[in-house]
Automatic annotation (TrEMBL):
Cofactor(s) needed by this chain: Zn(2+)
Superkingdom as given in the UniProt entry: Bacteria
Record flagged with keyword Mitochondrion: no
Stored Gene3D superfamilies: Medium-chain alcohol dehydrogenases, catalytic domain, NAD(P)-binding Rossmann-like Domain
Protein name per its UniProtKB record: Alcohol dehydrogenase catalytic domain-containing protein
MF GO annotations: oxidoreductase activity; zinc ion binding
Keywords: Metal-binding, Oxidoreductase, Zinc
Family: Belongs to the zinc-containing alcohol dehydrogenase family.
Enoyl reductase (ER) domain span: 7-329
InterPro entries found in the cross-reference section: ADH-like_C, ADH-like_N, ADH_Zn_CS, ER, GroES-like_sf, NAD(P)-bd_dom_sf, Zn_alcohol_dh
Amino acid sequence: MKSLVLTATKHMEIQDAEKPTPKADEILVNTKYAGICGTDHALYNGLPGSANAVPPIVLGHENSGIVAAVGADVEGFKEGDRVTVDPNIYCGKCFYCRTGRPELCDNLSAVGVTRNGGLENYFTAPAKVVYHLPDNVSLKAGATTEPISCAVHGVQLLKLTPYQKALVIGDGFMGQLFVQILQAYGVHQVDLAGIVDSKLKLNKDKFGVTNIFNTTRDELPSGYDVVIEAVGLPSTQEQAIEATRKGAQVLMFGVGKPDQHFSMNTYEVYQKQLTIQGSFINPNAFEDSIALLESGKVNVEPLISHELDLSQVADVLEGKVKDVSKAVVKVD
């Protein structure tokens, strides 16, 4: 089989490899699609993701495919089933797992990060992190279940009610997902701020965004009950705080650099009684994410800008491919 192997920082090779054999509690997946995201950019450049990736390793933590084989102890799956995979595997034994916060697991492992992932024809995963895809969800859309689940986890950390006005800062793939997910969770007004007019217009025309703002020329208003920061830059993090009204919640979802800081008025945090919430990975969010895809409340295919093969992945990770909103790799 063909594997795209990260052999060193900023270096990938397509190699021939043996098809893996699933252990008793594992499933062998014939990969159909693998998504490329910001975590892959970080790992390619030697930065940490949800965990550290040590070359040689096969990336690809956003996957869909067909069950090719099941381990001896696996129940509920059979060869030919259409599936998607939650990459994150928790130890179940550490302090955080035992206190209901598995996303903070001290021994986190992940498909496509600490063990080989979907940028190869076949990969294995524990059956406990494999999920059936509904018949009406395409394999291409199914490969985006993991990023949807990360946004769903962020939303689940907030207290949402229909009266709220929400602002999403960032018109990348994740910001655009938050638009649809906030609406699905009942927020009556969702506005979007970004820098690409075509993306802003798409979300207003197709996904019901109330107001759009291009931050290269528009000043952001304040008065929001919920602000999602989905960029990860100090400037947008500061904008998120400034856009709030009293009693607001700010979700700091965008991933900054490990040594990054931003400034805020601490008196404003006090006086407005703000809640500033971080969000890390996606615990217990796959079932909701699949339901959102199955119901059509989240429609991802218009947001996928590029379909690649394995030979094009490094170019995307190096920034040689322009205007990428969301890229998926057609692996097999």
